[in-house]
Amino acid sequence: MRAKTLQILHLEDDPADAFLVEHALDQDGIQAQVRRVWTRDAFLAALSEGPFDVILSDNSMPGFDALTAVRLLRERDEETPFVIVSGTIGEERATETLRNGATDFVLKDRIKRLGSAVSRALSEVESRKQRRSLEVQLRQAQKLEAVGRLTGSVSHDFNNLLSVIISTAEVLLADLPESDPHRADIKAIEEAAERGATLTRQLLAFSRQQELKPRVLDVNVLLRNLEPLLQRLVGSSVTLAFTLDPAPGSVKADPGQLEQVIVNLCVNARDAMPQGGKITIATANTELEGDLPGGRAAAPGRYVGVSVTDTGTGMDEETMIRCFEPFFTTKPEGVGTGLGLATVYGIIKQSGGHVWVTSQLSVGTTFEIHLPRQD
């Protein structure tokens, strides 16, 4: 039996036939709240007030028919299943209606087939959504991979140039007396080059070309050691809470880089809550099977999960898709570099793990990290 109560719009002018349809759904264990209409105006009004999970329609009603209804629906909505339930529909009419966007048709003298037709239609909709989600993920992964290769190449060359600038500035400072008026200018050059070197290290992290020094570690211990720093970073207006698995598996990662991941996520969470809020950091042993909600792909196996959840402003779908891109930011100009989440992505991928984001506007955001468990 379905746990969800379906919202169904039923185009039917005969109350007796409407009862038979609802009875057939109930017999198949389909819980449904059915709204019945039988005129064009009522149908359009219902569509504007929707949404509906499924639309069922008789083929012919006074002044209205299924073909007209499905055309009106598809002008507004390409997804919602439209199933014809009719006692008198010829093959030619059924074919034309299907060609215009109907999902299926069920003859009233075979009404027992209705439940399976509705279930199949809903399954097909879900499959299409997951396929589109996977296609978006694949395009984004290919885009990030291409940007990563370019970024890595440029960052290496730029880092070499910055090393020359920094070392030359150090030599000049060593040769100049403390009273020399040029010391301040050379010091400014050195500091600017150091900031540039920090950015290139972040870019190398995103492109997965930095040198990691992984070791087997307990994420709970790492998080507890990091807690005092995180408390200072998020400030007094944000509550920092930990929900830690009492016996998490070990992971193999560079502890310094994993700390940077957590810090970056907490700073982002803090910035999403300018009026204050709550950040919850959780750990848990997880098992991924490769078929995850939202069409997310992952190598099957045993993982240790770390999640960072805030109660901030949240993100829309377009922002979620782009949030790991280097230099992409929703912050005002001059605030942040847009490399924080790109660095998170690069470090976790280079460590053999996965990172995902789920978010809802005005509710909050959760970043999930999954690192392979070292048993």
SSE topology sketch:
Blueprint: E1 6-11, H1 15-27, E2 32-37, H2 40-49, E3 54-57, E4 60-61, E5 64-65, H3 66-76, E6 82-86, H4 91-99, E7 104-107, H5 114-175, H6 183-206, E8 215-217, H7 219-234, E9 238-243, E10 250-253, H8 255-271, E11 277-288, E12 301-310, H9 317-322, H10 340-350, E13 354-360, E14 364-374
Parallel strand pairs: 1-2, 1-3, 3-6, 6-7, 9-11
Antiparallel strand pairs: 4-5, 8-10, 10-14, 11-12, 12-14, 13-14
Properties at a glance:
Rossmann fold, Heat Shock Protein 90, alpha/beta, elongated, five-stranded parallel β-sheet, 48% helix, 14 strands, single chain, Helix Hairpins
**Assembly form of the protein:** single chain
How much of the polypeptide forms β-strand, as a percent range? 15-25%
Helical content (DSSP H or I, runs of 4+): 40-55%
Distance between the termini: 39 Å
CATH fold category name of the largest domain: Heat Shock Protein 90
What is the CATH first-level class name of the largest domain? Alpha Beta
Count of DSSP E strands? 14
Class derived from helix and strand content: alpha/beta
- CATH architecture name of the largest domain: 2-Layer Sandwich
Total domain units: 3
The CATH H-level superfamily of the largest domain is Histidine kinase-like ATPase, C-terminal domain
Query: Number of helix segments?
Result: 10
Overall geometry comes to elongated
The averaged pLDDT comes out at 83
Characterize the largest beta sheet: strand count, sense, and whether it forms a barrel.
7 strands, mixed
Instruction: List low-pLDDT spans.
Output: none
Rg, alpha carbons = 29 Å
Name the helix and strand elements from N-terminus to C-terminus, one letter apiece.
EHEHEEEHEHEHHEHEEHEEHHEE
